[in-house]
Design brief:
Blueprint lengths: L1 H5 L6 H30 L4 H22 L5 H18 L13 E2 L4 E2 L1 H20 L6 H21 L3 H17 L4 H20 L2 H11 L10 H13 L24 H33 L4 H25 L17 H18 L7
Antiparallel strand pairs: 1-2
Helix pairs in contact: 2-3, 2-11, 3-13, 4-5, 5-6, 5-7, 5-12, 6-7, 7-8, 7-12, 10-11, 11-12, 12-13
Length: 368
């Protein structure tokens, strides 16, 4: 292990800077989008800002720690992580539902969202196992199926807490990793089709999900009911125009968009910073994906490559889904915008994962 450490180069500075810029934008936009609702609900306009700054600092410290620790050490703890994640996903079911979903474990000073850990646990498991499996991943039964079963098990536990969106993210990331590891395209196409059918079935058989799907087709048909959130989001984006109304000037955050600091923060960015602001955010995510893939591809070993692709995919898929939902390109689903949406456990776990990705960037084949 020490040999690895002595050879470590510099972190990918572009990747590091992109992450920190996204986190900084997140802190500013959480304050801007939540100040009105925080003053109204908690009598303190900075209520959400203080928490987000605290979590950003905690996340940054843990990210720096992760940058310094050789990512190969994670192999030792993957089994323990898998067991802990299962326990947390079961414990969360014991607590009362919040907004119809059991996603949080309250700790008093904060709450943990086990589904945020589950995404990365699946990535760690796949990286460790595929590193050993090698070419045998091309087989269907012995190669691909074990991964789909394990990921499906974790996705199923997440689904028990009524969190279809994160369960879907886990399965999409699984397929991406299998593709990157060399699984046959025909096998993946069959699996992908089955997953789409499964999500479709889970949507149709759950009345509230079906209502969301119908309202997505024409949100203005029920603008005060099921289509309300999307209509308000589109109004925010539309009123922002090219340059936006200016930071702090959003009208939709004034109790029109429910919880504007969480899943629909991109709509407030569109309203306050306009098309230019939205384009900058999307460009930052594109840069992140580019540097993340570059880090994975130039890594010295298969383990680091799969780990890098998995971590990059988790962020990329969530960013794409969130922006698609807010712009009305897909049905409304509860996926936060990574680094930007308000949320402590999501930000902290994402930043630990970024530390691991940056550590991988220190150990690439062509140090640059």
């Amino acid at each position: 292990m020490k040999k690895h450490n002595s050879k470590m180069g510099q972190i990918d500075f572009i990747l590091f800077a992109t992450i920190m810029i996204l986190v900084a934008i997140g802190v500013v936009m959480v304050y801007s989008s939540s100040s009105y609702i925080a003053a109204f609900k908690y009598n303190d306009p900075e209520y959400f800002l203080k928490k987000q700054i605290m979590w950003a600092i905690v996340g940054s410290i843990l990210m720096v720690v992760a940058i310094k620790i050789d990512y190969h050490i994670l192999k030792r703890y993957t089994g323990i992580m898998m067991v802990i994640t299962i326990l947390l996903l079961l414990v969360v079911l014991a607590f009362p539902a919040i907004n119809g979903a059991k996603r949080w474990i309250p700790l008093g000073f904060a709450s943990i969202q086990p589904s945020e850990i589950a995404k990365y646990t699946v990535v760690l498991f796949m990286a460790k196992s595929l590193d050993k499996k090698g070419e045998r991943v091309k087989e269907f039964l012995k190669g691909m199926c074990p991964y789909l079963l394990v990921s499906g098990f974790y996705a199923g536990l997440v689904l028990l807490g009524s969190n279809l969106s994160i369960a879907a993210v886990i399965m999409i990331v699984t397929v991406i990793i299998l593709f990157a590891a060399g699984a046959k395209f025909l096998h993946l196409f069959a699996i992908g089709s089955t997953l789409v059918a499964a999500v479709g079935a889970l949507t149709i058989f759950e009345p509230y999900r079906l209502a969301r799907l119908m309202s997505f087709r024409d949100p203005f048909a029920d603008s005060q009911g099921k289509g309300y959130q999307l209509v308000q989001s589109l109004l925010a984006l539309g009123s922002g125009g090219i340059t936006g109304a200016g930071i702090g000037q959003s009208r939709q955050k004034c109790l029109y968009i429910p919880e504007p600091q969480t899943d629909f923060i991109f709509a407030i960015i569109g309203e306050e910073l306009g098309l230019i602001g939205c384009t900058v955010i999307m460009l930052l995510f594109v840069i992140f994906i580019w540097r993340g893939i570059k880090t994975a591809v130039t890594c010295k070993d298969m383990y680091g490559t799969i780990l890098g692709i998995g971590i990059t995919s988790v962020i990329a898929i969530q960013a794409v889904i969130n922006i698609a939902v807010v712009t009305g390109s897909m049905p409304v689903t509860g996926v936060p915008l990574p680094f930007i949406s308000y949320g402590g456990s999501a930000l902290v776990f994402n930043m630990i994962a970024m530390g691991i990705l940056l550590n991988i960037s220190r150990q690439t084949a062509n140090e640059n």
